[in-house]
Design brief:
The complex is a heterodimer. Chain A is an alpha/beta fold. Chain A has seven helices and 17 strands. In chain B, helix 2 packs across helix 5 and helix 3 crosses helix 4. The model of chain B has no long low-confidence stretch (mean pLDDT about 95). The complex binds flavin-adenine dinucleotide and adenosine monophosphate.
Chain lengths: ~325, ~250
């Protein structure tokens, strides 16, 4: 059995994503149990310098023009060959827009078991146990990481990305890519994120609304509170997908990470895709009718009442307090 | 254009989630299921494409409790064919087994495009979409929030973090994992769903034997125990608002 832990490094437009460092930290913890090495797999075009701060024992760099952008097809074909040849104890992917397009495909293709939404992997004797976060953060699932070889899709939160950075460049080995012509998936162009009137990543006071706001007319109630507090309104994904606020106001995995003085979460359940982006807030206050909503695990203060009842009253009291 | 949308039901998170005595699954007695939100977006996206061109939308799902209403709702929105896969679903099913069952049925339809939700909140062994794509030998792209049909391919919008979007070309036939439809899923009145129940046929197709390999085995479920939990403010809106103003002052926000 190959005791090594492989990490598929995620990067886009010459920048390595934080999840890659999280995975390297996880891989180190796992390799300490298996006695193997941490091997980073870097698929790219002209991105060799990106390898320099990866906390891995070895970086396998696979260079090909097809990797200039992310193509699921090119990644699938290449990783299929590498994983099949080496059968490592585990291969880590991000549970992300990149890993999500390849890990489950490879699981089926190679007949290897797959664990997704994985937050941590810990040792129990010589065995590895995974813990995954499911059902919007309301449940954890724990089990043995299938042996001898398994694929894992990791979410952030279990390891600090700083632990995945190395001061010294790791050993770099070049591998040849398989033939990659006739790709079925290719990038034509990028559409840059819209630049809005405000940058929520820099705002000190955020009034954030979720599906609990119920309809578009109620948005004004949140706007009024934000105005009274001298802050701005932002939202969870369902509110943005309804078109009730501009995409620039989206907080979370597919939107922006925020770090305000005050994050006021109203009618937001606290799904992992949302909470991964609010952890750096100084003060989180949550209002949610469901006392078991995971958002209360992150908030310092909470209230379990109807946000629509609270909003007008609170706005008035804030206005009074400000004089 | 032949469009197929495989869907699945997931626990409704509005309800309390009760773990059964075995500790390995949710108590079916206390469980309320609803359509996976992203599958709802996949249905909407399929119907939007049908409305822009020609073609048929087939929605396919495991035959479990509550599915009839979900399927009739899809038909009321514009889906043409509704298919229930009958089988031994009582003990639950993982996505590896589900993808095999879907593939076994969908290959008989030879669709140009398969749209499914990018993921579901209870996925523990990866999403259905990319597995289905592998079984059918088709390309897969997920996190999709826009689709335009071209000749022999689709142009799609794939989401990356921070609001970055990649415009991509995917050769047909293909499987897409839908994150969000171009428009939010439409609302259909109950009366229209009732009318559809009378006019639309629910087809049944026997699912193949469930083959669960590929997912983790013997999983223990538990509720997270947060190391810290919010200090809860009790009382009516007025009391809570008064206390919140104090807290905001104490923290220098006001
Ligand atoms: C790939 C991917 C990326 C994603 N990216 C993001 C992202 O960037 N950002 C994001 O937010 N989500 C993202 N999501 C979605 C995420 O999984 C959740 O679905 C979403 O965060 C839920 O939003 P919500 O909390 O507003 O809604 P829900 O989970 O539906 O919660 C609504 C809450 O409001 C409460 N409520 C209802 N009525 C009231 C009331 N009157 N007063 C007070 N409380 C009330 C309910 O108790 C409930 O807890 C992503 C999902 C996927 C699959
Ligand atoms: N190139 C594209 N690829 C995929 N979807 C697109 C593309 N262009 C536009 N769309 C979608 O089609 C809808 C109408 O777009 P437009 O006509 O540009 O307003 C929008 O909701 C977009 O999400």
């Amino acid at each position: 059995m190959n005791p090594d832990i492989y990490v598929v490094i995620e990067h886009l437009r010459r920048q390595i994503s934080d999840i890659s460092y999280v995975m390297l930290a996880a891989a180190r913890a796992m390799a300490n149990v298996t006695g193997g090495q941490v091997i980073a797999l870097l698929l790219g075009h002209d991105v060799e310098p990106l390898a320099s701060d990866l906390a891995a024992d070895q970086v396998l760099y696979i260079e090909h023009p097809a990797f200039a952008d992310f193509s699921s097809d090119a990644y699938q074909r290449t990783l299929e060959t590498v994983i099949k040849e080496r059968s490592p104890r585990a291969v880590l992917f991000g549970d992300t827009t990149i890993g999500g397009d390849v890990a489950a495909w490879l699981s089926t293709r190679l007949g290897l078991p797959l664990v997704s939404a994985c937050r941590t992997v810990r040792a129990e004797g010589a065995a590895l146990k995974f813990v995954s976060q499911i059902c919007g953060g309301k449940l954890l699932a724990e089990g043995d990481l299938p042996a001898p070889s398994a694929l894992v899709m990791m979410v952030p939160g279990g390891y600090k990305p700083e632990q995945g950075h190395a001061a010294q460049s790791p050993e770099l080995v070049r591998l040849d890519a398989p033939t990659l012509d006739d790709l079925h998936v290719s990038v034509k162009e990028y559409i840059e994120p819209a630049v809005g009137d405000v940058d929520i990543a820099r705002e000190p006071i955020l009034v954030s609304i979720g599906r609990g706001i119920q309809n578009q007319d109620n948005i004004e109630l949140a706007e009024e509170l934000a105005r009274a507090l001298g802050g701005v309104v932002c939202a969870s994904r369902p509110v943005i997908d309804q078109g009730w606020l501009a995409p620039t106001r989206l907080v979370g995995k597919s939107g922006k990470a925020v770090k305000p003085k005050l994050y006021f979460a109203l009618g937001i359940s606290g799904a992992p895709e949302h909470t991964e982006a609010i952890g750096d807030s100084e003060l989180i206050i949550a209002v949610n009718t469901d006392t078991s909503a995971p958002i209360f695990d992150l908030a310092k203060f909470g209230a379990s009442i109807d946000m629509l009842d609270l909003l007008p009253v609170l706005t008035e009291k804030v206005q009074q307090a400000k004089g | 254009m032949n469009l197929v949308v495989p869907i699945k039901m997931v626990p409704d998170l509005v309800e309390e989630l009760v773990i059964d005595a075995s500790g390995t699954k949710l108590d079916p007695e206390a469980l309320r299921l609803k359509l996976n939100e992203f599958d709802d977006h996949a249905i909407e996206q399929a119907i939007l494409l049908k409305e822009k061109g020609t073609g048929t939308v087939t929605v396919v799902a495991p035959d479990i409790e509550g599915i009839d209403e979900v399927l009739f709702t899809a038909a009321a929105k514009g889906a043409d064919r509704l298919v229930k896969l009958t089988g031994n679903w009582q003990r639950g099913v993982n996505n590896h087994a589900l993808a095999r069952v879907f593939a076994n049925f969908i290959k008989t339809l030879r669709p140009e495009l398969i749209l499914t939700g990018v993921q579901a909140h209870n996925d523990l062994d990866g999403a259905v979409g990319p597995q289905l794509a592998e079984h059918l030998g088709l390309p897969y792209v997920g996190y999709v929030s826009g689709v335009i049909v071209c000749d022999g391919s689709v142009q799609i919008r794939k989401e990356f973090p921070g609001g970055l979007i990649a415009e991509m070309q995917v050769m047909l036939p293909a499987v897409l994992g839908i994150q969000a439809a171009e428009k939010p899923p439409r609302y259909v009145p109950i009366s229209k769903i009732r009318a559809t129940m009378k006019s639309t046929n629910l087809e049944k197709f026997p699912a193949m034997e469930l083959e669960t390999a590929g997912a983790p085995l013997s999983v223990r479920l538990f509720q997270p125990q947060a190391s810290t939990r919010a200090t809860m403010i009790e009382g009516d809106a007025d009391t809570v608002a008064t206390r919140l103003v104090e807290i905001l002052k104490e923290h220098g926000v006001l």
